[in-house]
Amino acid sequence: MAHPFSLTRRTVFRAAAVAAGVAAVPTLLPAVSAKAARTVRVPGTRAKAVAGAAARAVEADFPIGYVGVTWSGPQRGAGIRLLGQDGNRGAWTALRPTCVAGADADGPASSGRVSVLVPADGAAGYELRFPDGATDTRSTAIDTVNGPAVERAVTTTTGEFLGIDYITRAGWGADESLRFKADGSENSPQTYYPAQTLTVHHTAGANGDADPAATIRAYYHLHAIENDWGDIGYHFLIDGAGRVYEGRYSGTDGMPAHDADGKMVTAFHAAGFNSGNLGIALLGTFTDQSPTPETRQSLTRLLAALSTYHGFDPQAAVTFVNPVNGVTKDVQMISGHRDWLVTDCPGATLYDGLPALRADVAAARSQNRARSL
Question: Model's pTM, two decimal places?
Answer without folding.
Answer: 0.88
